[in-house]
Every structure is written in structure tokens, then in C-alpha cells.
Amino acid sequence: MSKTILASRKNEHDNLVSSQRIYFLAAAIFLMGIIIIARLYILQVRDYARFRGMAEDQHEAFSELSARRGEIYLKNRDEKYPLAVNKEYMMAFLEPKMVTDRDRVISELSYILGMDRGEIERKLSDPNDMFEIVKKKISQEESEKIRNLKLKGVKLLPENYRYYPGKELASQVIGFVGSNGETEIGRYGLESFWEDQLHGKNGSIFQERDSAGRWISITDRKKVPAQDGVDLILTIDQAVQYETEKILKSAMEKYKADRGSILVQEPSTGKILAMANYPNFNPNDFGKVEDMSLFINPAVTNAYESGSVFKTMTLASGIDSGVISPNTKYVDTGVISEAGYNIKNSDGKANGEQTMTEVLEKSLNTGVIFTEKLIGNKRFADYVRNFGFGEKTGIALPNESAGDIRNLINLKSDIQFFTASFGQGITTTPLQVLNAYSVIANGGNLMKPQIVEKKVYSNGEEEIVEPQIIRRVIKKETSDQMKEMLGSVVVNGHGKRAAVSGYRVGGKTGTAQVAKQGGGGYEEGVTIGSFAGIAPLDDPRFAVIVKIDNPKELQWAESSAAPTFGEVMKFLLNYYNIEPTEPINKEEK
Questions:
Q1: Confidence label for 387 from pLDDT (cuts 50, 70 and 90)
Q2: Structural domains in the chain?
């Protein structure tokens, strides 16, 4: 009996243990199922994108396709001259992990590239490193020597860089391309102003590998082509720019001047044929330039008190408004007193009865004040603005200054208007003065200065930039009379040294004082000499301004800027084959 009971209890125990094992196993299977489901959710839903990306990284590659930067050209008669182009250079780099002869690599590279051995040793310090730049923009000779060594772990990679074949030629007009830390962008000049169009738009390429790691050919659907930048053809003529810069440099040395500018414009269209500044710089070596002010284009950026070259606009305003004519007379007493100031002529003389033509010939301050009084302050200020002063010209260059004519706001301050009539107390840029003289030359229209003649797109399409008239400033009759008056200045007045044998030339000198920084009067013994003029007078093809800053020799513009102008104009008339209309001085043949 007792054995039967014991056997029964044993069976119950065994059944209980068996049931517990089944429950445990079922629970374990259930839990494992939950884990598997959760894992599948993580892999296929929550982190799907991340894991797919990791997988694709093993079989796919995304690369950026660099757009070709647009190039910039000058005109050279009917041809074009490269001013800013793309040039392929080689970059030397190391794959330290692949280097087998460390000592030889250090010795050869340091010798060929002229580098310190320690610098190359440091680049090889991490044996697991796969990429270390040794030197960029190495010469063709250096790259050939490195290539011929066939050293393991030493590589060459082609890279495109900006190159300026003309070196200093038009450097402040062109600017340069430099790094902003991540990419190369235009800095200063045209390279900066036209950055968006020159840079173009980068494309992309998406590639896949097969299981063996080989690249699979791609379809157009996976490639976004780069859109190359726009090429610019400038209005500047290479020969004119070169000759103008040469003449300017010679003048700077001759007159021991601090700096200077010469601009040449086609009056009928506003096209700039030359824009020369000195000193300048070589944009290929911009990193070596210590004085960063050399990067700035003073012809459009630096405003100054232009002095007597401004008298032309005052007299033109008087003739156009009908208050004077070239033959109107006044009595020059040599001085005008206003608001406690005595304004004298530059020569300190009283010349007696004078015509307005003689006022321009002799550059009489009292004569233009006489004219400004007749015009009236408000109408005079309106003419000044209409000639383009106090506003930017709109030329396609960066950092243009509008100048400063705020002294003409208070219409009751006669003294400010009197001094403005001969170019003092208001500031202008050389480009503004040149553009105003083109108004006189072309019959009375203010043109938008143009420096880009044509844009060429990557598909070959061309866009011509048309000349633009901003507004009419003076009547044609006024223009004709002013041209004759300017011609008289060159024949009979202070502009005699600007004459070109065989041609009728007109223009005006200006010797301006330089205001002290921060105000408080003018610098002692510091002047800016200018000459602005046009030729040939019967049908002006060229307007030119010469500006010479602080000449130590021959401070008066008639002895420095005027003869420099004559040199430039003589070249222009010969270069463009303009037929003489006057007898030619045999000594100048």
C-alpha cells in the first residue's frame, strides 16, 4: 500500500517538473520571439535608413563634380586676351600607410621640393594615415622628378587653380580668387563682383560597386552634370590697358608721386577701354602682398576733391540753364568774400574783364563762383546730381563709392556752393569725373560705365551687354559750346601740354588740395593733379582722365597730369587709326 502511494507521489512530482519545464521552454521561446521581432523592427523600420546607408557605403559612392570657373578676357582688337584663366597644377601627397622606404621618401621630397626634412617626417608620423598633403601647386619640373622616382606611397594629383597670364595687368580691375577656408571664391575686382556667375554650379555623380568591388556603369539618371561658369569678355582693350599702365608708371616715377590712375572711356557708349592704377600687384602672388590697400581699385573706390576739373561742369550748367554763354563777361577782382572767407584765384591775381571761355582757360575761381550765383544754389545742386555726382555710376565692379556732395544739402550755405563750383568741399571718384566729361563729349547723355561687353555661357550661348543711357543732362547745343571751350584751354590756356599734333583736343587741368583725415583743413604741401579731356573735338572718340597723387616734382597739373594725358591720347588716336584733321608739327612726325 505504502509503495503504491510513494509511486503515485513520484509520478505527480515528475509531471509537475515536466510541466514547469514546458512552461519555461514556452516562455523562453516566446521571449526569444519578442526579441527577434524587436530586432527586426529596429533593423527594418526604426534604423532602416542608417543601416541601409552603412551597407550602401560598401557598394556606393557619391562624388561632387566641380564646375569649371568662368574665364575673363580682354579685347585685343578682334581677338581676345586671357586675363584670368584656369590652369592645371599638380599636388604632391603621401599615403603613409603605403610608404615602404621612409628614409628615401624624406630625402628625395625634401630635395626636390625644397622642404625641411622634419616637415616631411611629421607627415609620415602616423603609419595608418592614408592621406597627407606635401605641397600644392608644384612646378611641372618638380612633378616630373617625383613621378620618375616611382616611390610607393608618394602620389601626384592634378588640381585646377586660377592663373593670371598678364600678371600685374589690370590687377585691381580683375581681383583674384582666394580661399575662404572651405572653398575658392573671388576676392576683390571682377572675380568678386561676378562670383556667382563665374563660379557656376557644381554637379554630382552617384556610383555603385558590384560584389567584387568593381564600379558598375551608371545611367544619366544618377548623374547631375556640373554647370560651368560664365566667361566674361571685357570692354577693356589689352593694348590700350598695357600702354596706359606703362605711361602711368613712367609718370609716377618721373614726378615722384605716391599713386595714380588713368581711365579711358568711349563717350558714345560708356565703354571703359582702360582702367590703370599704380602701384598695383600680381594676383598670382596675392599672398605675398603686405599692403592690402593695393587690392582696392582706387579709380572707383577712392573719392577725392577733384579741384578745377570740376569747373567744366559748373560752366556747362550755366550755359545749359541759359544764364551765361562762352562770351559772357565779368570783372575778375581776384577775390570773393563770403561768410568770413576770402576765396582767391589760384594765381592770386585780379585779371579784370574776362569771358567765360577765359575763365576756363585761366582756371579762375572767381569766374565759376560768378556763374554759380547766376544759376542759383538749388538748380546748381540739381545739375551736379544730374551729372552723376553723389551717386554710384553702376559699373559692374565692387566697392564703388558714390562720392560726397552733402555740402550741397543746405541751400542757404552759399560758401559751400561757391567752393563746390571749383571742385572743393565735395568729393568724386575718377570714374565719376570721366563719366561727366563723356556727357560733354557725346552730346549731353550720362552713360552707365560699361566694363563687360559680352557674357559667354557654358552651352556656347552669348549675351551682348548693350550700352545704357541713364539720362540726358545737358542739351546738344551746350555740349557743342563746351567742347569748343575745352579746346581753347588746350590751345590758349593751362592745358597746352595736353595737345596732340594733328588733332583738336580739349580738356581741363585741376590741382586739388587734400583734406586732412578727420577734417580740420587741408594737408600742407600735398596736392592731387588731374587732367580730364576728350578728342577729337569734332567727333569725340575718347574721354580720358589722369590723376596723380602727391607729386613731389612739378606739383601743378599743367606740368604733370596734362603731358601724361597727351601721351595717352596720342597713343589712342594712332592705335585706332583716327585720321588727323589739323596740320602736324613736323618735329613730332
A1: very high
A2: 64-229 (3.90.1310.10), 235-281+297-582 (3.40.710.10)
